[in-house]
Structure formats: structure tokens, C-alpha cells
Amino acid sequence: MSSQTQRHPLDDIFHPRSVAIIGASANETRGSGGWVARLLDFGFSGQIYPINPRATEIAGLKAYPNVREIPGPVDYAIFAVPASLVPPIMEDCAVKRVKAVHIFTAGFSETGSERGEALQTDIERIAREANIRVIGPNCMGVYYPAGGLTFSPGFPKEPGSVAFVAQTGAGSSRLVGLAGSRGLRFSKVISYGNAIDLDAPDFLDYLATDEETKFIACYIEGVKDGRYLLESVRKCVRAKPVVILKAGLTEGGSGAAASHTAALSGSAAVWDAFFKQTGTIAVESLEEIIDMAITFLNFSRPQGRRVGIVGRGGGLGVIATDVCEKAGLRVPPYTADTRGQLEKLIPEAGASVRNPVETALGLRAAASFYEEGLKIVCGDPGIDFILTHVGVDVYGGYGSAMHDQLLEAAETLIRLSKTLTKPLAVVFYAGGRLETVAAVMEAQQRCLEGGLAVYSTIEAAAKAISRFLRYHEFIERGMS
Amino acid sequence: MSSQTQRHPLDDIFHPRSVAIIGASANETRGSGGWVARLLDFGFSGQIYPINPRATEIAGLKAYPNVREIPGPVDYAIFAVPASLVPPIMEDCAVKRVKAVHIFTAGFSETGSERGEALQTDIERIAREANIRVIGPNCMGVYYPAGGLTFSPGFPKEPGSVAFVAQTGAGSSRLVGLAGSRGLRFSKVISYGNAIDLDAPDFLDYLATDEETKFIACYIEGVKDGRYLLESVRKCVRAKPVVILKAGLTEGGSGAAASHTAALSGSAAVWDAFFKQTGTIAVESLEEIIDMAITFLNFSRPQGRRVGIVGRGGGLGVIATDVCEKAGLRVPPYTADTRGQLEKLIPEAGASVRNPVETALGLRAAASFYEEGLKIVCGDPGIDFILTHVGVDVYGGYGSAMHDQLLEAAETLIRLSKTLTKPLAVVFYAGGRLETVAAVMEAQQRCLEGGLAVYSTIEAAAKAISRFLRYHEFIERGMS
Description:
homodimer; alpha/beta
């Protein structure tokens, strides 16, 4: 944490020494999942002040009728009261010299109503005059596991290195859940809704130099200050990759965004130019954000776009090849020398060795093929990296044998990836059986812990690696 | 089954009165999963003749040293012997007047070797001279649950109405598995590999008038007779929808296809013209085949492309809108009247009613919203159909309560879909937790049984419905 004199305005949000919960429920207890319980259960180490005029104690903490009565200073306040109560309580916060607030409450300009607009204008004025920084309104606020802050009791407590800045609360929850099941953890997640004060550029500016963050993803509906966004994204991209899911770029989507966070979406052409100019990676779904994070955290940069594919199934190999080439990768045939070596390794008639090369049938046979086969493919001078697809459904076998063999195959791939001179990406494909889905989730997490880039489909892997290469090409052009 | 005099050549394959298994393993038993056991365990009702010179009995059936010694007639033979043994045994089949064979064996022209080419030429000559129809070589053959035929012991025994014709064996297995987990069942699946005799057009010609088949999907790497394909596809499209996954359309993919089934892929432009000219639906993955099948089997034709979206999460609604519009659908705002009615139903501040409309939080609240909300959206004159997305991850709740509430929500949607005057499509989104994945799989199957079109992502639903509308527009133009 920075010392008090050099404190960044956002440190009052990420490292508050005290938090007031305005509108804490009177019957909240530890484990109840309310705003007070979230901080207590997440191990927030600062002061917590529940505010409720009808309670004297909440979840074992002394409750106050309003912020003005709190004895010590208040760095940060979370608003969970009806919209009409927000302006008068903001006035209290001004008197109390609260540094920053998160307004969870919705019902402002996103409603399109005059009343909502007027309430929002009031808050903006009070905040500006009292120099209170605001997250929201109409948002979930901050998840910062290292600092004991969360907006969901179910989120992981371990911190990671992925930051997510988003105008969507439900989308943020979905991303944390999905990413968690793939083994990813977060440095900071900020759901900032209508963005009447703090906007994407403010968070990006902070994250650019945040040592806890190695990868930044954003969900943006609109920004107020385009030039500031350009500057802050440029500052980030020089230091770490930035991925943006820009929502509201279609006619209907733009209208929906207006009604969600009152955002002005901007035109697709403008955003397209922005992405190209800044080296930002544009994605279209939350799943693509996760695939990009995994690629940046666990995949080394290959020399080029030529991929050697290894997996079971002739037709599935043809589909995999088409998918890779459509994503901008190249799947050249292996050299005659490589093919000769692969043929000796695969006694099976009809198995292709051209690229893709087919492994033998069965997970155990596949794993034993990897020992020599990946080395041979890696040695091919026409190949820059390897993509192995492990189709648990086509390898057959069920129950504990399948589970154990899949985990063994994962360990083999983790071990080999450390000895290969070219990067290795892995796709575990589960198919439709719940038990293979369960085993694949476990294998994916194990691979990610083991430092391996792992994906759920070949489409996802090919798209992510192609974008990853484009980012590096952009950075290189900038450097030269 | 047709009477013997009017027998279609393919009836010897789909309705053989007797099957010889050439190369049956001597120690095969029921349940062992071998070719003999597959037929026995699947309830094939005709004669089964295991052929193995070193056995007198296999799985309780009398074994013969070669096909010529079989006492009765043989309609169909399955070859599971090394490639070099196939030509001499084909000569035996010619003597025995076997009507059709499936050559499972690989190692022919797909290897690119002179020896493989020569062996394949031999088989082609023998088959032509003796008028033996051939599936393969280098393929899995036939899965026809109603007739007791299968190439995998794990496939469902219940028949359905989806046919799949494919040059890929592993891909066919994957499709049956994935489709099965979504609740789909098959009329006939044919994996036909190198296609030295019977090719995609032969199977399509048969399926066009096959009453057991309502939807046809193909995986094609190449065809020998383009004109015949055009004719047979036209015959099908007049009667039922045809979906084609054309593999090998990229440079690398075309090379991979040559090495998989020795197919000549053809150019992307030619295939594109073919799809447009015939009204065939082009897809890019096995998953898209399944989504098309579900749409054609369970979704009624809407009047147009204007969709009313219902689901939780403002940002997720914006993403959903973008996804739908990018897929060629339209998401217009609801009328003022509709919005007014929806506002009364949703007391929550900040919830959008513009389109998408946001349901309240929680699965139970969502289900109770559907009762009135779907009727209101359905009544909007600017909307042609409804898409409801149920994000189990954002609704929160876990364990048996989540499971039961999800199933209740599914039952509510099934019931309401029968009363609505416009078509309803549903997306169940599981997120990353295994227990939600399990519950969603169950809810999807229940919806499919209940006649509801159900998908795993909004992307999948939007793409499939857009293609479905394009098919109907094509048919209509042809009729007018």
C-alpha cells in the first residue's frame, strides 16, 4: 500500500482503512451473504461500520444510525439503500469527508425516467463538490480478494493476476465463476455500472502500474472521455495485454446499452480503429476473455503461425485444420523426415501422419505416443508450435479408469511441455457425458496449475493463439 | 421393409437378413464390444455368421472358416481383417453372392502409398464385377438402432429421426454422444470413409424417402460425382432439411482430407454456390449440426426475424442483443404498451424492460415472471418469437434447491410454450460449476422431450434460428 501522502485516489477503494455499509440489514449475521458479512467472511482487516437507524449491533459490530456518527475517519462507503435516499446520505458523506463510495443502488438515468435522471444529477453534484470518488451507481462494486473485498460471498479468496473492469454486474459474476472453473484467479474485479464519476479509463490508469495485475480485461458499453480511454489503454498496452469486450455495437445492442447503463455506445468503425491503433485485443464473449487470459498467462510466444496438430480422429483432424486456418493460423504438412519418424511410431494402418498426426486409440496409448511423438513434431522445421487435442469422448473408456488415465495424460503433457523447445497448447474435449465433463474440468485445472495453456475447443485455442500472436506483432512494430 | 422384388440396394445394408463378420475375434463373448457382440447385444434379429479359420464357435454362435462355407445366403458382410486380406476374401464374397459389404479396415488409398492404392483398385474391380455394394473402406459403417445395427456398443438403442452421413468415424461417434446428451436420437448414421462405391449421394437418395428420417446431416470431405450430389440433395431438400459440414475448404484442410479419405475437396466458391443453389444449410462444427437438428425438430417457424429477449443481467442482455443481431436477427424495442405492462410486473429498480427485459433475481422469481411476462412479450406486435436465457450461474443458489428450481423453471417453460402464440426458444447457461452443468443437462433433456427448442449458448440459438429462417425462405421462394 502506498503511504498516505502519495495515496492514489483509487487506493481509498482498493485499500480502504475503513468501510461504512449504508443500508446494512438489521438481521445480518456472519455467513448471511449480506454486505457486512461479505467483508467479515472475506477477512477484510480494516474497520467495518454498519449503518442502520434501527439497529445498534449488526453481525457483532456496533451499528450507527448514520455516517456522521461514526467516531473514526471513513475511507469508503457502500450504498445499499433505495435510490431516493442516496442524495441525502451523500450529503452526510460529504460532511464526514468520506473519500470514495460505491453505489450499488439502481434506478437512476438507466431507467430513462426524469426522476432517475434528477437523482443522478444530484449525486454527481454532491460528489463533485465534496471531492468524493464514485463507483456506480447501478453496479456490484469491487472484488479484491487480496484486500478482503468482495461483492459475492461465493468468490474465491485466493488472489490471482487477472483484472476485470466491467459495466456489468451479472457478467462479472459469470466471468469470475467461469474463469474459476478453468483455474484462473483475479487481482481486481470492478463492476462500475453507470460510471457517473470513475470510468473505465480511471481503472485502467490504475491497473497499468498495478503490480498485482498481469492481464486486463474490460467489458465496456460506453465511455464519456474517449481521449482519456485512448491514453489509459496505451499506458496499459505498453505494460501488459488489454482485452476489450465492446458491447452495444449493433443497432439493437446500442439501444439495450442505453437502457442498461445509459451509455452512448459509439460506432463500430470508431471502435475498430481504436482497437487497431492501440493494440487492444477485441473479443466477443466472456469465454473469449478467459481464453485470452489463459493464453497470456500460460503460453510462450511461438516464432510464427505454423501449427503442428496432434490428436485422434481423421475427420476431426480435418475439422481442426480448417478451424485453425480460418482463425489465421497455418497447418503445413510435416517434412518427409518427420512423417517417416511418425510412421515408425504409429503401427496403425490408415492413421494420418501428414499434419494432423493421429495418435493411437485410447488415452493411455495417446499419452505414450506423446513421449516420442511430440518431440518429433517439435523437431519439424516447418512448425512453430504444437496443438494437441485430447478428445476424451472419442478415446472411449469410462469411470475411474478414464478419469485416472486423463489425469495421467495431463501430467505427461505438463512434464513434456517443459522439455519441448516450442510452445505446446492443449485442448481437452469432454463430449456430452457428465463424468467426462467432470474429469476434463479437473485435468484443465491441473494443467493450468502446471503452467500449460489449456482450452475447451480447438476453435477457442486457435482464435486465442492467433490474437495473442497479433498482439505481439503489434508490440514489436511499436518497438522497432 | 420392402419386399424382396422391390428391394432398394441399400436395404441389404439397413435391413440385412444375415450378416457375416469377417475377422471376428476367436475369444469374443457377449458384452465384449467386438463386432459380433455389438450385433448380439443390440438385438439384431437376423442371422449372424462369425468368420474365423481358427474358431468353431464365437460368442455362442457357430463360426465358419470362410464365407463360402456359410449354409444360407449372406446379405451383408463386415470386414475387420488386415488390408492385404481384403481382396481375396472379397473374391469369396463374390462367389457367395454377398450383396453388400462394409470394409472397416484402413490402409488403402488414404495412405498415399502405391500398395494401398493397388489394394483399393483390386477391391473396386471385384466389387464392380460381382455387383457387391461397398461402404468404405476405412470407416465405421452403420448405426441403425431400429434394425439392431451399431458400430459402438455404447450408443443408445432407442431410435430417433436424425440421420448422419459422414466420412468420419470418430466424428460420428462424437456426434452421437453429444447429441445424445442433448436428448437427440438417430434414425441412421453411416460412416463411409474412402467411398470407393457408395458415396454421400447414394445415402442421401435413400434418406430422401426414408420415413424414419426427418432431418439429414452430412460430414463431407469430397464427392466423386458432383452432379449426383446436386440431384440427391435437391431431392432431400424438397422433403426435409439437409445440413452439410464441408471439411477441407482451407488449404491445410484440403491436404488433411486427402490424407484422411483420399478425397478431393473442391473449392470454397464451388461449395458456396452449391449451398445457395440447393438450400442446403452449411455449418462449421458438429455442435452446429446438433443445434440445427434441435431447431428443426422442436421450433416452429416464426413470422420473421424479430426476437424478444427475456433473461437476467443488464450487461448479459446487451451481449445477447449484439449476438442476435450479428447472427442476422433483429432485437427491436418493445412498444410503449408492452414496456408499461412489464414495468408493473418488475418492481426492481434499474431492471430493463426495453428488450431485453430482465427477470427478477433467482430461479423461482424468474419462473414466476415467465407466467405473465412471456405472455406480455408474446403480445408485442413488433416481436416474432421469444428467446429466454436462463443463466443458472447468475441466478445463484446451489445444491438440490438449485436443481429442483431449475427443473421447475424448465417445466414452466414447457407448459407456457404450448399456450403462447409465437415460438419460444430457451438457452440454459450452466457456467463453470459441475453441479450446474449436471442440472442444465437434465433440464435440456427434459425440455427436448417436452418439445421445446433448447440451446447451450445464445450464440448457438441465434445462429441456428437464423439459418432455420433462411431455409424456410429458400423453400418458400422455390414454391412461389
